[in-house]
Inverse folding.
């Protein structure tokens, strides 16, 4: 338990979190690791967790019948994989694959959702952090969409 | 007259008629990716090598087809071989792609304001390249490495469309092996075999170590990519006067006479192509200026 | 406006002797160029003799209109400026830059070896002197010198004419470029035709001017004759019907890049580019690379270009100024605004040609006035609300 609390406190995602929330969150946390090639989650599955990546790299990809899997984002140490647990219908839109050994702290989505409903201040702290991630992902995605490097001719 | 200090203006050796090209011969031609290639040239008129500063460009003429501005992508300390990396996007550059060793083309230049190598001395340096934008930045990187102890931390951030579009791949490996140079690469999308980063080049900025108060950032790539990158650097409190961009517009003469390259009051061929960001800031927000 | 009292003594050339001025210049190897009437306009072309001048003609100009009309007298220079300017000689509309040959040895570049022509311009107005000075700054004062312009300009002899009347569209007084020729000439003439007396009060502007004057019959002008010349110039001054409020134009245009006025003008502007062709300071060009049928000889030609053409600003993928309003805005903002940033002065000399030769009669003095009015109107509104 002590280790988990430390991992959570140290992860950039929870920077500046008021310390009284840590025990609440730890109750939903567990340490996980993934072997190279293993999937953290699959498209279409129920989204019940998010992962604070402590070591390694996770490829967010989507499979296309003609082109095979296309990687649209790589997530690295210090980053967060998964926000679909927050938003109904709580389903993953992409595959997340460990490209090498990945160590992460997994947070149970159902557990956290219940605690956020009970304590809205906790909910606000989490949403503040996720909205920053969503904004960054949105801007990146928009820039990727623009396909700025394409040959105009 | 603008009161801002213009970027460095290197001295150039020019013929008396600056519209007359010099014949150069192709020594080597190499494909970098599906539409980009590198030409290595030497003078064919027994004249001197073309010396240049990083960020400058030449006008390359293909017999009977036309002339285009192309950034010089070689090592400024080795001017005997004049190197250009070209993307085939139009009639002239497509014709250029057909040229082979021994073929000749016309060269005028060098032209334009250079990357701020002097202003960067004593600072951390960030080179941020998008797509073919790596070509005009490569001479800056060579210069930085040649005088490594004049600068603090140096990081090269590269964005490309996909792994297949990366250029200078062999050199990338060499640069990665430098212990005192940070090289970060990302692509907009990739297939499963790729193990590098995927995401836009702005996502690399957070992974580079630099002191925003003592930084010179040099950006080159599609204009949208440069604007997003500028925003990201502002988020990290880099002042506007520390950012330099290489801009591009239609050019017919590169001498400030044909008028085509004007953007607001700036002649891209004379006042640029390298500009300090604060000089450009009023122009970026205005459409069709 | 004060007419400057020249400290130099002024000379006088009789109308009957003016032909000798022309011959003196021709004998010195100059190609004499001056105004001639052709195709319903007064244009600049080779002047073999004084009799080729459009004596007794004048021009009626208003926005979108130009007509020649007979005068009641036989003044040789009783008109103002037409569709040509002297830039067609100093900065020719089409010229070959070089040839290239492709043979077994590879590529050979062959520069033009023809000597530059030597022109003597007769009849250069004060606004045109200013326009030449403006183009001098464009072509000679920056990092590179334009060799074609430089050579022709160095070979040019200028006989200026002080206007004795204002044109229908000109506004040189507002632009501080006339009506009196102050500098940049070898000789400056003011035509006086009173009763039976027809003469030219002459100011020397350079040592070459003095040399040429010394070769032709002339004498010192009397105070009365000088006064008559001053009355001519005062007449031009007084008649000037158009003004451009030129103060602070650089900042005004910079502030109003997104003003709705540009869309209003775009409803009328045809983007035809006439204004750029007739403007004496417009300098934009393009290059054309061609080969002959054998494919062994290539040429590069330089042609006048206009920022009104759609692909003037083409970069791979499209045109940076695809909206016609943006192209009109580019022209006027450059001419009256950013020209100051680039060259430290205005690009407009107040000759009025763009107003006369615009097919829909767009008047840049009116466009600027409209911008200023709308600024003071919105200022009043916000002041009223506070």
């Amino acid at each position: 338990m002590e280790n988990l609390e430390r991992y959570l406190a140290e992860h950039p995602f929870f920077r500046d979190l008021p310390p009284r929330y840590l025990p609440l969150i730890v109750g939903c946390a567990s340490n996980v690791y993934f072997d190279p090639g293993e999937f953290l989650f699959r498209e279409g599955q129920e989204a019940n967790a998010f992962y604070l990546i402590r070591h390694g790299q996770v490829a967010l990809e989507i499979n296309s019948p003609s082109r095979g899997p296309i990687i649209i984002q790589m997530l690295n140490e210090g980053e967060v994989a998964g926000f679909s647990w927050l938003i109904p219908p709580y389903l993953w839109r992409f595959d997340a694959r460990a490209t090498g050994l990945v160590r992460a702290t997994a947070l149970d989505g159902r557990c956290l959702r219940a605690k956020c409903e009970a304590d809205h201040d906790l909910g606000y702290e989490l949403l503040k952090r996720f909205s920053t991630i969503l904004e960054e992902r949105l801007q990146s995605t928009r820039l990727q969409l623009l396909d700025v490097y394409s040959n105009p001719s | 007259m603008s009161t801002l200090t213009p970027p460095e203006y290197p001295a150039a050796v020019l013929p008396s008629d600056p519209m007359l090209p010099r014949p150069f011969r192709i020594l080597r031609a190499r494909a970098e990716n599906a539409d980009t290639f590198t030409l290595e040239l030497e003078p064919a008129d027994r004249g001197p090598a073309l010396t240049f500063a990083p960020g400058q460009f030449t006008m390359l003429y293909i017999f009977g087809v036309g002339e285009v501005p192309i950034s010089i992508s070689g090592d400024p300390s080795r001017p005997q071989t004049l190197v250009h990396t070209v993307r085939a996007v139009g009639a002239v550059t497509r014709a250029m792609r057909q040229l082979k060793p021994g073929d000749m083309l016309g060269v005028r230049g060098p032209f334009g304001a250079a990357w701020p190598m002097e202003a960067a001395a004593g600072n951390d340096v960030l080179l941020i390249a998008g797509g073919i934008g790596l070509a005009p930045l490569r001479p800056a990187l060579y210069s930085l490495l040649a005088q490594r102890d004049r600068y603090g931390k140096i990081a090269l951030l590269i964005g490309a469309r996909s792994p297949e579009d990366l250029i200078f791949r062999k050199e990338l490996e060499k640069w990665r092996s430098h212990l005192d140079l940070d090289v970060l690469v990302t692509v907009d999308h990739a297939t499963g075999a790729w193990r590098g980063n995927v995401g836009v080049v702005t996502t690399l900025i957070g992974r580079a170590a630099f002191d925003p108060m003592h930084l010179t950032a040099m950006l080159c790539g599609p204009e949208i990519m440069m604007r997003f990158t500028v925003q990201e650097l502002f988020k990290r409190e880099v002042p506007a006067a520390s950012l330099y961009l290489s801009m591009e517009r239609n050019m017919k003469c590169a001498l400030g006479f044909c008028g085509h390259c004007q953007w607001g009051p700036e002649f891209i061929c004379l006042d640029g192509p390298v500009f300090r960001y604060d000089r450009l800031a009023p122009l970026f927000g205005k459409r069709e200026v | 406006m004060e007419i400057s009292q020249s400290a130099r003594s002024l000379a006088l050339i009789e109308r009957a002797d003016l032909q000798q001025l022309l011959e003196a210049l021709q004998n010195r190897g100059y190609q004499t160029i001056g105004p001639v009437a052709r195709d319903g306009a007064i244009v600049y072309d080779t002047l073999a003799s004084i009799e080729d001048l459009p004596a007794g003609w004048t021009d009626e100009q208003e926005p979108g209109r130009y007509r020649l009309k007979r005068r009641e007298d036989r003044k040789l220079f009783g008109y103002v400026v037409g569709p040509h300017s002297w830039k067609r000689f100093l900065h020719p509309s089409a010229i070959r830059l070089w040839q290239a040959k492709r043979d077994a040895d590879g590529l050979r570049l062959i520069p033009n070896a023809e000597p530059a022509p030597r022109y003597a311009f007769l009849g250069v107005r004060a606004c045109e002197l200013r326009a030449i000075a403006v183009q001098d700054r464009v072509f000679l004062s920056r990092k590179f010198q334009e060799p074609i312009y430089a050579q022709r300009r160095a070979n040019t002899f200028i006989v200026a004419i002080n206007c004795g009347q204002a044109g229908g569209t000109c506004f040189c007084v507002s632009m501080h470029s006339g009506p009196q020729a102050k500098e940049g000439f070898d000789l400056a003439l003011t035509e006086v035709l009173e009763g039976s007396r027809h003469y030219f009060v002459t100011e020397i502007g350079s040592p070459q001017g003095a040399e040429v004057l010394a070769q032709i019959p002339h004498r010192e002008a009397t105070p009365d004759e000088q006064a008559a010349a001053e009355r001519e110039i005062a007449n031009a001054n007084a008649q000037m019907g158009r003004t451009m409020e030129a103060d602070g134009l650089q900042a005004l245009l910079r502030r109003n890049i997104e003003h709705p006025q540009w869309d209003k003008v775009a409803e009328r502007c045809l983007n035809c580019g006439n204004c750029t062709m007739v403007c004496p300071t417009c300098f934009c060009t393009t290059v054309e690379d061609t080969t002959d049928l054998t494919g062994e000889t290539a040429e590069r030609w330089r042609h006048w270009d206009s920022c009104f053409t759609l692909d003037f600003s083409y970069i791979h993928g499209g045109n940076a100024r695809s909206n016609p309003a943006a192209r009109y805005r580019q022209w006027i903002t450059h001419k009256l605004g950013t020209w100051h940033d680039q060259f430290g002065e205005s690009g407009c000399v107040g000759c009025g040609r763009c107003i006369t030769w615009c097919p829909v009669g767009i008047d840049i003095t009116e466009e600027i006035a409209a911008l200023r009015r709308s600024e003071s109107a919105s200022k009043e509104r916000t002041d009223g609300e506070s």
